[in-house]
Amino acid sequence: MNILIINGPNLNLLGKREPHIYGTKSLEDINEELKKFGEDNGVKLDFFQSNHEGEIIDKIHQADVSYNGIIINPGAFTHYSYAIRDAIASISVPVIEVHLSNIFSREDFRHHSVISPVVKGQICGFGSFGYKLAVYALIEIIDGNGM
Amino acid sequence: MNILIINGPNLNLLGKREPHIYGTKSLEDINEELKKFGEDNGVKLDFFQSNHEGEIIDKIHQADVSYNGIIINPGAFTHYSYAIRDAIASISVPVIEVHLSNIFSREDFRHHSVISPVVKGQICGFGSFGYKLAVYALIEIIDGNGM
Amino acid sequence: MNILIINGPNLNLLGKREPHIYGTKSLEDINEELKKFGEDNGVKLDFFQSNHEGEIIDKIHQADVSYNGIIINPGAFTHYSYAIRDAIASISVPVIEVHLSNIFSREDFRHHSVISPVVKGQICGFGSFGYKLAVYALIEIIDGNGM
Amino acid sequence: MNILIINGPNLNLLGKREPHIYGTKSLEDINEELKKFGEDNGVKLDFFQSNHEGEIIDKIHQADVSYNGIIINPGAFTHYSYAIRDAIASISVPVIEVHLSNIFSREDFRHHSVISPVVKGQICGFGSFGYKLAVYALIEIIDGNGM
Amino acid sequence: MNILIINGPNLNLLGKREPHIYGTKSLEDINEELKKFGEDNGVKLDFFQSNHEGEIIDKIHQADVSYNGIIINPGAFTHYSYAIRDAIASISVPVIEVHLSNIFSREDFRHHSVISPVVKGQICGFGSFGYKLAVYALIEIIDGNGM
Amino acid sequence: MNILIINGPNLNLLGKREPHIYGTKSLEDINEELKKFGEDNGVKLDFFQSNHEGEIIDKIHQADVSYNGIIINPGAFTHYSYAIRDAIASISVPVIEVHLSNIFSREDFRHHSVISPVVKGQICGFGSFGYKLAVYALIEIIDGNGM
Amino acid sequence: MNILIINGPNLNLLGKREPHIYGTKSLEDINEELKKFGEDNGVKLDFFQSNHEGEIIDKIHQADVSYNGIIINPGAFTHYSYAIRDAIASISVPVIEVHLSNIFSREDFRHHSVISPVVKGQICGFGSFGYKLAVYALIEIIDGNGM
Amino acid sequence: MNILIINGPNLNLLGKREPHIYGTKSLEDINEELKKFGEDNGVKLDFFQSNHEGEIIDKIHQADVSYNGIIINPGAFTHYSYAIRDAIASISVPVIEVHLSNIFSREDFRHHSVISPVVKGQICGFGSFGYKLAVYALIEIIDGNGM
Amino acid sequence: MNILIINGPNLNLLGKREPHIYGTKSLEDINEELKKFGEDNGVKLDFFQSNHEGEIIDKIHQADVSYNGIIINPGAFTHYSYAIRDAIASISVPVIEVHLSNIFSREDFRHHSVISPVVKGQICGFGSFGYKLAVYALIEIIDGNGM
Amino acid sequence: MNILIINGPNLNLLGKREPHIYGTKSLEDINEELKKFGEDNGVKLDFFQSNHEGEIIDKIHQADVSYNGIIINPGAFTHYSYAIRDAIASISVPVIEVHLSNIFSREDFRHHSVISPVVKGQICGFGSFGYKLAVYALIEIIDGNGM
Amino acid sequence: MNILIINGPNLNLLGKREPHIYGTKSLEDINEELKKFGEDNGVKLDFFQSNHEGEIIDKIHQADVSYNGIIINPGAFTHYSYAIRDAIASISVPVIEVHLSNIFSREDFRHHSVISPVVKGQICGFGSFGYKLAVYALIEIIDGNGM
Amino acid sequence: MNILIINGPNLNLLGKREPHIYGTKSLEDINEELKKFGEDNGVKLDFFQSNHEGEIIDKIHQADVSYNGIIINPGAFTHYSYAIRDAIASISVPVIEVHLSNIFSREDFRHHSVISPVVKGQICGFGSFGYKLAVYALIEIIDGNGM
Questions:
Q1: Nearest CA of chain F to the CA of E31: how many Å?
Q2: d(CA J126, CA J27)
Q3: Count of alpha carbons within 13 angstroms of residue C91, beta-carbon side
Q4: F87 touches chain I (CB under 8 A)
Q5: Of A43, B17, G57, K119, which one's alpha carbon is 20 to 30 angstroms from that of B128?
Q6: Is E145 exposed, middle or buried (0-12, 13-18, 19+ CB in 10 A)?
Q7: ipTM, 2 decimals?
Q8: Which residue in J has a C-alpha nearest to residue G110's C-alpha?
Q9: Whole-angstrom distance, CA of residue H75 vs CA of residue B84
Q10: pLDDT per residue over K98-140, tens digit each?
C-alpha cells in the first residue's frame, strides 16, 4: 500500500512560520517521522510540497493511477482553489484533508473549505499527528473494513 | 487513562436511521467494538448518549474531574447549541469533536459547527472509525508528546 | 388507526398566553374536543406536551413503532431545533406540522421552519381546527388513497 | 355556500408535468373529484385556471362579491407576485393558500411565499387532497365556529 | 400638451381597498378631478388602468409617440417588474413615478422600486394630490424651463 | 402661512458643485426664486442651510413652534443621520423630503434614506423645481384638503 | 424540422430601443434574415413576440407538441419569471436561452437568470447572430449527434 | 415582595469557568450575598439554576403566579432559545435580563439576544452587581413609581 | 465623587417627544430628581445635553480629567457615531451606556449600538430610573468593590 | 484566420472525469474533431490546455499578437481568477467563454463567473459542440458582419 | 505651494489615546515636525483639527480656493461621513487620505472607508510618517509630473 | 540597504493595458526610473514580475533572508490569494502593498484586499510614484525612526 502526502503553499516554512500556531518541527522532520511511522504500519509514504496550485493539480492527476490514497493539506488553497477541488472530484482514489491547526478557531476566512465537500473526510487541529491519523484512516478505507 | 465518549441526539437510532448515511451498525455494536479497542490501547472508555441538551451539559461538567479527555459527537446540537459550546470552553480536559458523515458534503445547515472553535480538533467523514482516530489523538495529547 | 399529537414548548399555556393570537381555549379543552373528533372518525388520538426538546425527541423515537402517524406543533422549536428535525427524518411514520397562527404574518424569525423540509406537509393559520385538518390528512395518507 | 378555486400558471399541465412531483391526475380529473366532494359537503365549487397574472387579479377582485371564500394555488406566482398579494389583501372574503408539493423541501426559491402573510392560512404537501382540506377549513371559517 | 396617467394593479379598487392607507375616493373620482385640474392648466389628461403587466408595457410603447409625458403609479409592479422598467427606459418621453402612500414607511418589500432608476423623478406620500404635483412637474419639464 | 426650507451639507456649493448633476444655479439664486414663488402663492418662505448636523436638529426643534411646515433636503445626512430622523419624528408640523437629483439612479449608498420613513412624503429628481412642488404639497396639507 | 423563436417584453422595439446596446436592426429585419437562414439549413422557423408573460407561457405549452425545439430570449422576464421557468421545465422539447447583449457586463440585476437552470444551454453577447448559433445548436441536439 | 433569580447553562461553574471573564466568586457566594442584599431591601429572593432549557421554561411558567418579578441570566440560551423567549412573552410578571459580562464586546454570536425584545429591560457588563441593579429596578417597577 | 451625565440628540425634547415611548417628564425634571438622588448617595452629578456630535466628543475628552465616571445616553448617535465610540475608548474613566426605552423591541436599526463594545456596561428599558441604576453601578465600580 | 482555444484546469481529464456531466470523448478526440471543423470553415485552430493559472495568463498575453480571436473554457478558474479576467481585459482580440455543461444548473459556486463581464459573449451547456458555436461566432465577429 | 492638513475626531488626543496603536507623540509634536519637513521641501503646511463634522466640511469648502492640496485623516468619520465625502467630491484641489494605523488589520468596521472612492489616493499604516508621504505625493501631483 | 519590488499578474503589460487607468509607461521604463531613484536614496532595488502565484510565493520566501524589505503590487491576486497573504505573514521583513490606481473607486471586487491585513501599510492611487513613496516608507521603517 502506498500513499501520497501533498502539502500546499507555505508549508515548506514549517518550523519557521508562526511557530505558536504551527509548531517548531520543520516539514523535513515531520516527513522523516511519518516515513518511519508508515513503514511501521506497512505503508510506503511519498511526499510532495508545492506553492504552485497547478503543480498540485498535476500531481493529483498522476496520483490517481500510482497511489492507493492521498492525504492533502491544501494550506491557503483550502479557501479558494475550486481547481484543486475539481481535481480531487475527478479522481477515484480516496482523499483525506488534513489541517495542522484548528481552522475553525482562527480568522473567519479559514472557517470555510472549498475542498471539504469532495474529500472522504477531514481531520484538523492535531498538528503533525493529524497526518498519522489520516494514514490510519486510509488503511481502514483501503482495506475496506466497512467504514 | 479513561475517556468519555458522548453521543448527542438521535445517535441512539444508529443502524436504523438513514443507513445509507450512517451505516448499519447499532450504537451498542459500535460501543462494544470501541470498548475492546480501548482496552487494546490501555484506555478505559465510558459511553453516554442523550437526546437532552441539558444532560449532555451536566455530563461535561462532571467529566471535567473524572476523565482525562472527552470525545463528543454532538449530533444536531453541533449547529446551534452554544450552551454545549460554553460547557466545553468551561472545562480543562481536552475535547475532540467527531462526526460520522462528512458534514461538509450534506445540507447547508450542517456545514457550520458552533462547537468547533472551542475543541482541540475535529474529525469527520470516517463513520464509527472516527471515534478510534479520536482515541488515538487523545492518547497522543494526554501523553503530551508535543503535538 | 392511532395517531400521536405532540405539542411543543409553551403550548400548555394555551388560553392564557396571548389570547388575541392563540385563542381562549385551553390545551385540555382542545384535546378533549379532538379526542371526540378522532373517535367520530375512527381514530384513537393520544396527546403529549412538553417544554423539553429532549423529551419530544424521545417521544418521536418511541412513536415510530406504536403509532400510524404523528401531528406535531413544535412551538418555538420550529425555528431552531435541528435535533427534532433529525428525529423526524429518522423515523418512517408520516409526520404533519401544524401551527395555530399564520407564522408568515408574524415576526421575521417565525417565517422559517427547520422542521418543514422533512415533514409530509404543513398546515398553519387555522387555530386548533388545524389539528383536525391534519387528522383528515393522516387518514388519507395512511389509507393510501394515492395522494 | 360557494367557493372559488383558483389555480395559477402551469397547473393546467397537471398529470403531464413532472408527475413524480405533482402526480398523474389531470386538473380536470381533480376538479371533477372536488366538485363532487363539494356537493357532498353542501358547497358549490367553481374553478378558474390561468397562466396570466392579470387575469388572476381580475378574478380575485370579482370574487370578492360573488363568493364566500377563495382557495388559491398561485403556482410560481407564489414567489414574486406582490400584485396578487395586494389583490388578496384588498378583498374581504377569506383566502387559503394551497400547494400540492411540500414547497419547503424543494429548491430554495420555492421556500418563500410573498402571498402567505396576507392569507388566512396555508396548506401544503398533501397533493390534490390539500384542496379538500382547504374546503373543510373554509366551511369552518365561514360558519364562524370560533377558529 | 397631452399626458397619459397609468395606474397599475389593484388601483381600480381605490376607495374600497384599505381606505386607511389609500383614502376613500374611487379612481373614477380622482380621474374626474384630475381631468378638470388638467384643463385648468392647459393639459389634456388621458387615463389607463390595468392589472395586466403586459397591457401596461404595450401602453407605454404606444404612448411614446402620442403623448408629451407619462405619469405612472405602477402599484405592486413597482417592486419586481423589470419588464416595465425596460419599457420606460426604451422610450423617450419623460416619465414620472407616483405613489399614493409613503412607500418607505410601510413593509420592507415596498421600500425598493425597480422602476425609480429609469424615471425622471419620483413623488410619493401625498395621496391623489401626487398626480397633480406630477402634472406640474411634467409641464415644467416639457416646457423646458431648465430644471 | 410660513414654511421653513432646510438645506443640508454641501448644498451651499450649488452652482459650483458637479453642475452636470446639480445644475448651475447657486443656492442664493434658487432661494430668491423660491421666495418670489412663495409670495405669489401666499406663503412666507424662510431658508436655512448648514453643514452641521447639530444645527439642523436645533433648527427643526425650533421650527416646530414657529412654522406651519418644513421642507428639507438633508443632503448626505439623508443616508445616515438617525438623529435628524428622530428630530423630525419628534415634532408635529408636516415635513417633506426633497432631493434635487434622482437619488435612485446614482451610487448605491444614495438609494437608501433613513429620513423617508418619518416624513409626510418625498419628492426627488426635479432639480430646484422640487422645492416648488413641496410648497404646493404643504399648502394642500396645511389647508387640510383631505389628501 | 421546425423551431419556434420566442422573444419577450420590449424586444418588439429593437432598432429603436437603446441602439448602442441592441443594434439598429428591427425585430422584423432580424426575423426575415433568420427565416432565410433557417431555410438554408433545412429548418422552418416560426416567430412569436409578446410583452405578456401569460401569453409566453401559453405559447410554450402549445409548442411542446408542435415544434422540435424552442429558442427563447425572455427579455426582462429572465430575471424574475419563475412562471416561465416552470413552463419550460414542464415540457419535453429542448429550449435554448439567448440574450443579445452580454448580460454579465450590465446592471447587477441582469446577472442573474431564473430561467437558466432549466434550459439546455445559454448563448449571450452575440447580438442577433446568437439566434443563428442557437439554431445550429438545436439542429445538433435534435439530430442527436451525441452532444 | 418576592423575586425569582434564574441562571441558565454553565452558570453553576461560576468561579471556576474563565475567571478573567466571569470573576472568581462561585454562584453560591453570589446568591448568599444577594439573599442578604434582598433582605436589606425588603425583598425575598429565590434562586434557580439549570442547564436544561425545558426546566427553565417550566420554572418561568410556575413563577408567573408565585413571584412579583423575575431576573434571568439566560447564559448561552440568550442567543437561540426562542422557546424561553415565548415563555417570557406568555407571562405577565415583569422580567429583567442580566449578563455578567458586556456581551457586546465579545464574540459576534453573543451580540444578539433573542430574549431582549420581550423583557422589560436589560443590564449587562457589571458582573454579579448586575443582579442587585435588577433588584433595584424590579422594586421600582413593582412599586409602580411611574417608570 | 462626581459624575457627568451626557444626553445626546433630541433628548432635550423629553416630555414632549413621543411620550408613549419616552414618558412625560421633561429632561429638566429628570435632572432635578437625579441631582437630589446623587446628593442622597454622596455623588455630585453634572448634566450635559447636546444635539451636536462634536460637542459631545469635546465634553468626553474634558470629562476624562474632571470626573470619576460618565453616564451617557447617546440617543440616535448610538447607532452610527464611531467618533463618539472612539472618544470613549480614548479615555480612562468608566463609562456606562443608558437607554430610556428597550431598544431591542423597537425598529431594527435601534438594535445595534456602535458604542456598546467600548463601555463598561449597558442599561436599557427602565425609563429615567436607568440613570439611577447607572449611578449605583458607577459608585460600585469607582469604589472598586471587585465587580 | 487563426484562433486559439484555451482549456483550463482538469479539462485534460475529459472522457475520464465525471462522464455523466462532461461526456466520454477525450480532449484529444475533441481537438481532433475541432481541427477538422476549423479547416472546413477556413480557420486554423490551435489548442492549449493547462492546469496552471500563470501559464494561461502568459498564453493570453502572447495570443494578443498572434491570433485573431480566443476561445476559452476556464474550468474552475471561471469562479475566482480575477488575474485571468484582467489578462482578457488587457488584450484587444475578441474572447469567447465556453462551458461544456450548463453551469447554472449545478452547484451554487458555479453560477458566478468572474470572467464573463470582460468577454465578448458566453456559450454554455452544449458539450464540445459549444466550441464549434464559438468558432462560428468568432468568424462572424472577425469578419465584422455588424453583429 | 501651500497644503492644508486636516485631522478628524479624537486625533487631538494623540500621544494619550491607545499609544500601542497610535504612538506616543502628541499632535502638536507631529505638526511641529511636519511644519519643518514642509519648509525643507518648499511647502507651507497649515493644520486644522476638529471633532465636529460640520467644521471639517466648512474647512474643506474654504480650502478649495486657498490651498493647492489637502491631506485628510478623517478619523472615525472615515467610516460613515458621506457629508465629508460629498465635500471632497465638490472641490477641485487634490485630496489625499491618510491613516496612522493599518485600518485593514483592525476591527471590521474600520475596513471600509466611505471617503476613499473620491480622493486621489490613500496611505495607511505608517504612523505620522504617512503625512510626509502624502506631502511628497501632493508635490508630485501639483507639479504635474505625469503621475 | 536592498529592497525587492514584486509586481503581480498582467503588470508586465503596463503601458499597453488600459492606459487611461494605468498610464503609458512600460514596466521597464518604471523600473529604470525607480532604479535610479533608489540609487539617489542609497537603496539597491531589485525587480520581479510574474503572472504565476506560486513563483511570487517562492520569491517572497527567498526574499526573507536576502532583502531588508519588500514592496508588492499583487495585481489581481490582491483580491483572492490567501496563499500570498500567508507567505507575507510567514516572513519577518517589512512588506508594503502598492496599487497604481485607486482601487476603491473602481469595480466592487477591487475594494477588498486579502493582503492588506498582514502588510505594514498600503499606498494606492498615485500611479508609479507610489513605488517611490513605498521606498521612502521602507527606509524610514528599516532605519527604525520610531514610526
A1: 15
A2: 15
A3: 26
A4: yes
A5: A43
A6: exposed
A7: 0.94
A8: J117
A9: 11
A10: 999 999 999 999 999 999 999 999 999 999 999 999 999 999 9
Does residue F53 belong to the interface with chain K, where contact is any CB pair within 8 Å? yes
Helix, coil or strand: residue J100: coil
pLDDT-based confidence at residue G147 (cuts at 50, 70, 90): low
D22 flagged as catalytic: yes
Say how many CA atoms lie within 13 Å of D55 toward its Cβ: 13
**Over 80: is that where the pLDDT of J61 sits?**
yes
* Segment D13-64, tens digit of pLDDT: 998 877 887 788 999 999 999 999 999 999 999 999 999 999 999 999 999 8
Which positions in chain D touch C131 (Cβ < 8 Å)?
none
Question: Which set of grid coordinates corresponds to residue I15?
Answer: 416630555
Rounded Cα distance between E53 and E56, Å, is 5
Question: Given this model, what pLDDT does residue H42 score?
Answer: 96
Among D79, D90, D114, the residue to mutate for chain E (most E Cβ within 10 A): D90
Report residue G17 as a C-alpha cell: 430601443
Question: What pLDDT does E15 receive?
Answer: 87
Chain C contact present for D122, CB below 8 A: yes
Domain boundaries, chain D: 2-142
Q: How many CB atoms lie within 10 A of CB C42?
A: 8
Q: How close F11 comes to chain E (CA, Å)?
A: 16
The C-alpha torsion from I57 through I63 and I64 to I65, rounded to 10°, is: 140
CB of D28 closer than 8 Å to CB of D49: no
Distance (Å, rounded) from C-alpha A123 to C-alpha B140?
15
Neighbour subunits, C (≥3 Cβ pairs < 8 A): B, D, H
Residue pair L32/L39 in contact (Cβ under 8 Å)? The answer is: no
Phi, psi of H4 (to 5 degrees): -105, 130
- Fold entry, domain B2-142: Rossmann fold (3.40.50)
Q: How far is C92 from chain B (nearest CA, A)?
A: 9
C-beta of residue C137 within 8 angstroms of C-beta of residue C123: yes
- Give the ranges where K1-147 is alpha helix by DSSP (H): 19-22, 27-40, 53-66, 82-90, 129-142
Interface contact E114, partner G, CB < 8 A = yes
E 1-20 residues inside an 8 A Cβ radius of G? none
- Residue to substitute from F86, F93, F109, interface I, most I β-carbons within 10 A: F86
Q: Are A58 and J51 in contact (CB under 8 A)?
A: yes
Burial class (CB in 10 A: 0-12, 13-18, 19+), A107: exposed
Between F55, F58, F85, which is nearest I76 by CB? F85
pLDDT above 90 (res C84) = yes
Is the Cβ pair F116, E105 closer than 8 Å?
yes
Residues 6+ apart with CB under 8 A from L88: L60, L70, L72, L95, L115, L118, L119
Let me know if chains H and B touch, i.e. at least 3 Cβ pairs under 8 angstroms. yes
Q: Residue B69 carries which DSSP code?
A: E
In this prediction, residue L146 carries a pLDDT of 52
pLDDT, tens digit (0-9, with 9 covering 90-100), for I74-129: 999 999 999 999 999 999 999 999 999 999 999 999 999 999 999 999 999 999 99
Distance of CA B82 to the CA centre of its chain: 16
Interface-testing mutation among J7, J10, J11, J52, with chain A (most A C-beta atoms within 10 A)? J10
- What's the gap in Å between the CA of A138 and the closest CA on chain L? 27
CA distance H79 to H86: 14
Report how far residue I115's alpha carbon sits from residue F82's, in angstroms, rounded to the nearest whole number.
15
Give residue L30's pLDDT. 97
How many other C-beta atoms are found inside a 10 Å radius of the C-beta of residue D46? Answer: 15
Contact in structure between L107 and L79 (CB atoms under 8 Å): no
C-alpha cell belonging to residue G131: 439566434
Does residue D136 surpass a pLDDT of 80? yes
Closest chain H residue to B59, measured at CA: H51
